[in-house]
Amino acid sequence: MNAEKKTVVLATRNQHKVQEIRALLSDLPVTFLSLADFPTLPEVIEDGTTCQENAVKKAKETAAGSGHWALADDTGLEVDALGGRPGVYAARYAGEQATYEDNCQKLLEELHDIPEEQRGARFLTIMALSDPKGQIQVVEGELQGKITQEFYGSQGFGYDPVFFVPKAKKTLAEMTLAEKNELSHRGQALRLAKDLLKRQLEITSSVGA
After folding, report:
1. Is 7 within 8 Å of 68 (Cβ atoms)?
2. How would you classify the pairing of strands 69-79 and 6-10?
3. Which residues contact 83 (CB under 8 A, 6 or more apart)?
4. Whole-Å CA distances, 135 to 11, 57, 60, 110, 131
5. Cis omega (within 30 of 0) for bond into 42
6. What does DSSP say about strands 120-130 and 136-147: parallel, antiparallel, or unpaired?
7. Domains in the chain: ranges and CATH
């Protein structure tokens, strides 16, 4: 194994995301920093109309600004009964300064009269890996589920308390971090991103390739 540690910047200031990503990639000989370690870097304006556009933009700008490889993600929530909304605008569904609870509450209110069998939804996570020159590779993960009628669980973040995963028989917020990473959209995308990191940075994990 190449003993030299590489540095990858996670293109987010969201510490919940940083925790999830570091947990799943912890066996790589990589130092994972985040935008919190680069306070002078400007905020990336997420003005893309798709999750892929936003993820690519965040990865490229972070890599260029930091001088390191950068890994960015963007996640959308598509609700069948809402014609695919909130989609790419999931994080600011209830407004630019909305809290996680605000977003969940708005979603539940909009689905108030929708029966259980019509509350299908899916999470889509796009992850983009960029080198400092802007060379990009993209992977994605998807998770099918249903929107509950109230909040369940206290773990996780975002829409986790209202996103029920049928095969697990609980919401994402009722899962441990390990359980969530095993089947979540971000976990799926991260496993693919891990393979990208191994190839591009020419490294292996501490528990084997």
Report:
1. yes
2. parallel
3. none
4. 15, 11, 8, 40, 6
5. no
6. antiparallel
7. 6-200 (3.90.950.10)
* Active-site residue set: 74
pLDDT digits (tens, 9 = 90+) for 148-196: 999 999 998 999 999 999 999 999 999 998 899 899 999 999 999 999 9
Assess contact for 121 and 148: CB atoms under 8 A.
Answer: no
Q: What does the block give as tokens for 164?
A: 């029920």
Is-contact 138 59, C-beta < 8 A?
Answer: no
Q: Measuring CA to CA, how many Å separate 208 from each of 21, 110, 168, 204?
A: 19, 47, 29, 6
176 burial via Cβ count (<10 Å: 0-12, 13-18, 19+): exposed
Residue 151: alpha-carbon gap to chain centroid: 21
* pTM attached to this predicted model: 0.86
Amino acid at 42: P
Structure tokens at 130: 């960029």
Nearest-10 Cα torsion for 92, 164, 20, 1: -130
Q: List, for residues 69-126, the tens digit of each pLDDT value.
A: 999 999 999 999 999 999 999 999 999 889 999 999 999 999 999 999 999 999 999 9
Interacting residues of 114 by C-beta distance below 8 A, sequence separation 6+: 81
